[in-house]
Specification:
267 residues, 6 helices, globular, transferase, ApbE-like_sf
Length: 267
């Protein structure tokens, strides 16, 4: 059954009509603010497109749903190559690329059986037919540390197609896309961080009992109550970097901060 999309609409005679919608998707609450001259009905159609896109991504890449395309890959790619949808192929390809670009700190195979830092090299993509295979048993790919950032870029595409230039998308307070300007100011201020056509992505532990990021160094959950936020122009890259920086040790983190000094990082 489809989740109820709730919304409020405040019309205006100028360009600042406000549309606020919220719903549950991808295991979190999604809040959407749109500033546009479009009608209430038109904006509701845009939000429905966003909701449908998030449901599609979850059906494709949810690690915990046995019916997802990703779960089928995890069960069968060691037995024989699996032809991927174009979108899932591009997602996995990007994640493999950024394993080396984050000094191994971002690793989508950390939930594999008998994991070690070489496990990711058991994942093989074929660009010719967009297939994937695993060269050892027990390998699994988990895109949970990447998917919300990718979702932000999918939403950006929908808003661009709808010619909506001013918007704020908040997925669970950890993955945020800010386009254009707030109706009464420049950019969008989130916890004293001003965003303008940027994404804010956050990774970390908010309590000693809520740990979920695995360290590629030892395959164990990262301890400690802390969070790392990254501001980037691309949500996918932001999600990768916030996850990688959180999983990194102090030496790796210092090196990554130097490599990606063009981005704002908050620890």
């Amino acid at each position: 059954m489809q989740t109820t999309i709730q919304h409020l609409y405040k019309p205006s005679n100028d360009d600042n009509s406000l549309f606020y919608a919220w719903f549950l998707a991808m295991h979190t609450r999604v809040d959407i603010i749109l500033c546009s001259r479009k009608s209430e009905g038109e904006l509701l159609l845009v939000v429905n497109r966003i909701y449908d896109a998030l449901c599609r991504l979850e059906k494709m890449a949810n690690f915990y749903n046995p019916a997802s395309e990703l779960s089928v890959v995890n069960r069968t790619a060691f037995v024989s190559p699996v032809v991927l949808s174009e979108e899932l192929y591009s997602m996995i390809d990007l994640c493999l690329e950024y394993n080396s670009k984050t000094l191994g700190c971002f690793d989508v195979t950390v939930h594999s059986e008998n994991y070690n830092q070489n496990t990711i090299h058991s994942v093989h993509l074929s660009a010719g037919d967009h297939s994937i295979c695993f060269s050892q048993p027990g390998v699994t790919i988990n895109l949970s540390g990447f998917l919300k950032g990718y979702a932000l870029e999918t939403i950006r595409g929908i808003l661009n197609e709808a010619l909506i230039e001013n918007a704020l998308i908040n997925m669970g307070n950890s993955s945020i896309l800010a386009l254009g300007n707030h109706p009464v100011g420049s950019g969008w201020k989130i916890n004293d961080i001003l965003l303008h056509n940027e994404c804010l992505t956050t990774s970390g532990n908010d309590s000693p009992n809520r740990r979920h990021i695995v360290s590629p160094r030892n395959g164990k959950l990262v301890e400690g109550v802390k969070q790392i936020a990254v501001v980037t122009t691309d949500g996918s890259i932001g999600e990768i970097l916030s996850t990688g920086l959180f999983a990194a040790d102090s030496e790796q983190r210092e090196a990554l901060l130097g490599i990606y000094r063009q981005y704002r990082v908050y620890i």
